[in-house]
């Protein structure tokens, strides 16, 4: 229903009028007149009985005498206007008192119109028709508003439902991406001496460093899930270089260095923030803050922040764990070494965040040792 349709009066409705008067001759006069105009009518001989009928029948118009026993016209008017179910029913006070004070009193308590006795039929017909027209408009607007509210409520429910579905789909999508990440990281582990424990620890270190730098929660989460793929490019590194126990020749080093660009290629082609970050980390986790890293010798802020964070996390774990060619360093030794290379190998801001988060870093190492024991 449009607002235009809503203001069209209902023409085929037979309106109900309640007539209240203590004089039977008046009741008869108004009853016959209103029936003659085409309205249905109910009569009552005082305000109290009239009110009972009004509450029971909810008429379209009330025509009431003012001076009556039990409850007069003013009392009736106040009672009708005080009840939310009846307050919109127009009331016409029929009075012999055409003095100003009586009229003002009636208006103040909510009467909609007056008829002064003796009432002419033509005046009665005109007043009744006008008030019923206004009542029809009001009824239509009420039902239009109620209809609109129902529709708004329905649409709101539908939107809420759609939003919930979208959230579920997003969660499923994120879960499936994380699943891919885990599988890809596992595939890289098969090719390397790196263990699942290294991947787990360095990714948690990276998340903690990002937190220490005041990064938003989404960035921190992405660090946790993207950094495990930093060495995924080693899938393409030949075994004899990857597994070599001794020192690598310059040529072998060059081939080994290609795991960065290989990783980028594997992770390219997606604009999902998680995979974009993973690609940046894979490609730049061997760059140095001072420009002496590889593969592109990027310098300072040209190195993506996620990669600068992952570099500190990766090296810290490499230092503090045992490798075939070295013993595990103590956390103190590792913190001191990383501090000494702040500004050369590492971004000073990342080093500062690592130092600031020392307790959490040690906690991660401790909890992982426990997990390794269980395994
Ligand atoms: Fe690497
Ligand atoms: Fe690593």
What low-confidence regions span 5 or more consecutive residues with pLDDT below 50? 1-10
**Beta-strand proportion:** 5-15%
**Could you say what the CATH topology of the largest domain is called?**
Hypothetical protein af1432
Bound small molecules, by name, code or SMILES, are: fe (ii) ion
Within CATH, the superfamily of the largest domain carries the name Hypothetical protein af1432
The N- to C-terminal Cα distance equals 68 Å
**SSE string, helix = H, strand = E?**
HEHEHEHEHEHHHHHHHHHH
Task: State the total count of DSSP E strands.
Answer: 5
Query: Which class best fits the helix and strand makeup?
Result: alpha/beta
Alpha carbon gyration radius: 43 Å
Shape: rod-shaped
Largest beta sheet: strand ordering:
2-1-3-4-5
Question: Can you characterise this structure?
Answer:
Helices cover 61% and strands 6% of the residues. The two termini are 68 Å apart. The radius of gyration is 43 Å and the shape is rod-shaped. It has 375 residues and is an alpha/beta fold.
């Amino acid at each position: 229903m449009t607002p235009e349709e809503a203001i069209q009066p209902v023409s085929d409705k037979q309106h109900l009028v309640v007539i209240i008067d203590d004089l039977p001759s008046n009741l008869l006069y108004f009853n016959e007149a209103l029936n003659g105009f085409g309205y249905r009518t109910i009569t009552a001989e005082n305000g109290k009985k009239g009110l009972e009928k009004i509450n029971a029948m909810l008429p379209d118009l009330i025509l009431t005498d003012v001076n009556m026993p039990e409850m007069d016209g003013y009392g009736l008017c106040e009672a009708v206007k005080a009840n939310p179910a009846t307050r919109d029913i127009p009331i016409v006070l029929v009075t012999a008192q055409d003095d100003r004070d009586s009229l003002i009193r009636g208006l103040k308590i909510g009467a909609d119109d007056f008829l002064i006795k003796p009432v002419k039929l033509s005046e009665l017909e005109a007043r009744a028709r006008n008030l019923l027209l206004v009542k029809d408009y009001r009824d239509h607007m009420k039902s239009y508003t109620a209809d609109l509210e129902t529709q708004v409520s329905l649409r709101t429910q539908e939107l809420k439902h759609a939003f919930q579905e979208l959230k579920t789909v997003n969660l499923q999508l994120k879960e499936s991406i994380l699943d891919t990440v885990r599988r890809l990281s596992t595939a890289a582990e098969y090719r390397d001496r790196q263990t699942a424990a290294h991947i787990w620890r360095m990714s948690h270190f990276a998340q903690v460093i990002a937190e220490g730098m005041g990064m938003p929660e989404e960035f921190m989460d992405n660090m946790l899930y993207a950094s495990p793929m930093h060495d995924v490019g080693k899938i393409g590194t030949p075994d004899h270089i990857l597994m070599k126990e001794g020192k690598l020749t310059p040529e072998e080093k060059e081939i080994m260095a290609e795991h960065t660009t290989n990783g980028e290629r594997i992770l390219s082609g997606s604009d999902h923030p998680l995979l974009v970050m993973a690609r940046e980390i894979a490609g730049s986790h061997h760059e140095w803050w001072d420009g002496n890293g590889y593969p592109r010798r990027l310098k300072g802020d040209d190195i993506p922040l996620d990669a600068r964070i992952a570099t500190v996390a990766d090296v810290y774990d490499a230092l503090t764990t045992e490798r075939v060619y070295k013993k595990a360093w103590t956390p103190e030794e590792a913190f001191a070494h990383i501090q000494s290379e702040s500004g050369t190998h590492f971004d000073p801001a990342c080093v500062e965040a690592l130092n600031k988060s020392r307790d959490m870093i040690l906690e991660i190492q401790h909890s992982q040792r426990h997990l390794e024991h269980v395994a």
